[in-house]
């Protein structure tokens, strides 16, 4: 679990949910020095049992082992599968890993979980072509998002218009025309940008940001909460197709209006014009960013709508119900 990044933050929030359901949660790290991780103390204080890395001997035949997009889990699956057949892989991408396909062909993954029905429909036939075993389950679940970690910001500074983007530093997370979009949208006051998740890879892709845009490599420099406190809008063109972006939940909880690509999981999360904006072209990004800068009352209305939408999609009771269905399937698994 982590405070920053898609799969790590999603796991963190699911652990919070599982504990609230009365489940016993164990973590088996796949790399050493787990005690150095930012959430180590919080996890142990919450009652999570953290094992030495790769301690597969602790597993029994009735234990459920879930992995959130972890390549090392796929590598160690032969050892895990000797001890329990209740193996679950949650791929946070929209495409399949080569090792994921290999382990499916070998019959070592017994359940695939998806945050997004469209991704399930796309990937299930590809996996079943490798192994048609009907005992392998493909299910969706509703990931929990703990919005108490991201307080809603009602008022922000009015002497400038805060905008920004947040992601990993990978080049694919950035659209090549990102700076063009930031340059050409207009605001009634000075624009101030913030890119959280930016390094040499990002700069090689899009160029050096303007002097009015601050960059930070990760959340050790600027926290996500401070990022959203700055941002009236999250203006986030990307070259990737997002699956179920956690930053969407963070922004909606915090009151930062999302202006994002009209594809992937964004299409299911955002109601265009009501809880954010979906863009097909750079002109759309420029237009809607400018609209939000010049129409503060509409911006506030959309921010409040989005907050409710985030709770609808990632709320406690809905997520509990979906995980209860998943665990029932696992209980029934031979």
Description:
With 334 residues, this protein is an alpha/beta fold. It has two domains: 6-144 and 315-332; 147-314, Rossmann fold, CATH 3.40.50. The chain is 41% helix and 15% strand. The chain contains 13 helices and twelve strands. The strands form three sheets. The chain has a six-stranded parallel sheet, sandwiched between helices. Strands 3-4-5-6 form a four-stranded parallel sheet, sandwiched between helices. Strand 1 (26-27), helix 2 (40-45) and strand 2 (49-50) form a beta-alpha-beta unit. Helix 6 packs parallel to helix 11 (282-294) and helix 9 packs across helix 12. The longest helix has 19 residues, at 296-314. It is elongated. The protein starts with 5 loop residues before the first helix and ends with a helix. The mean pLDDT is 96.
List the helices and strands and how they pair.
Blueprint: H1 6-20, E1 26-27, H2 40-45, E2 49-50, E3 65-68, H3 71-81, E4 87-90, H4 98-106, E5 111-114, H5 117-130, E6 137-140, E7 160-166, H6 178-184, E8 190-196, H7 200-206, E9 213-216, H8 224-230, E10 233-236, H9 246-254, E11 257-261, H10 266-269, E12 277-279, H11 282-294, H12 296-314, H13 316-332
Parallel strand pairs: 1-2, 3-4, 4-5, 5-6, 7-8, 7-10, 8-9, 10-11, 11-12
Helix pairs in contact: 6-11, 9-12
Q: Which tags fit this structure?
A:
41% helix; 13 helices; 334 residues; six-stranded parallel β-sheet; alpha/beta; elongated; Rossmann fold; four-stranded parallel β-sheet
């Amino acid at each position: 679990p982590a405070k920053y990044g898609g799969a790590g933050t999603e796991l963190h929030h699911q652990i919070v949910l599982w504990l609230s359901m009365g489940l016993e949660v164990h973590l088996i790290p796949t790399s050493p020095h787990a005690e150095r991780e930012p959430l180590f103390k919080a996890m142990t204080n919450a009652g999570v049992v953290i094992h030495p890395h790769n301690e597969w001997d602790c597993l029994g035949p009735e234990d459920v082992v879930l992995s959130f997009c972890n390549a090392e889990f796929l590598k160690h699956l032969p050892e895990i599968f000797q001890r329990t057949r209740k193996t679950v892989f949650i791929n946070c991408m929209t495409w399949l890993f080569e090792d994921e396909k290999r382990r499916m062909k070998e019959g070592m993954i017994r359940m695939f979980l998806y945050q997004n029905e469209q991704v399930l429909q796309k990937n299930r036939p590809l996996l079943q072509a490798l192994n048609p075993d009907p005992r392998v389950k493909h299910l969706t679940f509703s990931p929990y998002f703990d919005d108490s970690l991201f307080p809603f910001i009602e008022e922000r500074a009015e002497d400038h218009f805060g905008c920004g983007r947040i992601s990993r530093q990978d080049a694919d997370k950035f659209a090549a025309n990102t700076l063009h979009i930031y340059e050409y949208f207009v605001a009634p006051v000075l624009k101030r940008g913030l890119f959280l998740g930016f390094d040499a890879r990002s700069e090689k892709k899009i160029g050096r940001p303007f002097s009015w845009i601050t960059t930070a490599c990760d959340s050790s420099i600027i926290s996500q909460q401070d990022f959203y406190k700055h941002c009236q809008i999250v203006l986030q063109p990307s070259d990737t197709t997002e699956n179920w972006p956690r930053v969407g939940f963070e922004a909606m909880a915090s009151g930062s209006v999302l202006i994002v690509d009209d594809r992937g999981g964004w299409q299911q999360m955002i109601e265009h014009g009501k809880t954010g904006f979906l863009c097909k072209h750079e002109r759309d990004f420029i237009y809607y960013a400018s609209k939000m800068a010049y129409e503060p009352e509409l911006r506030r209305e959309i921010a409040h709508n989005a907050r409710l939408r985030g709770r609808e999609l990632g709320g406690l009771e809905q997520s509990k119900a979906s995980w209860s269905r998943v665990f029932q399937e696992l209980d029934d698994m031979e």
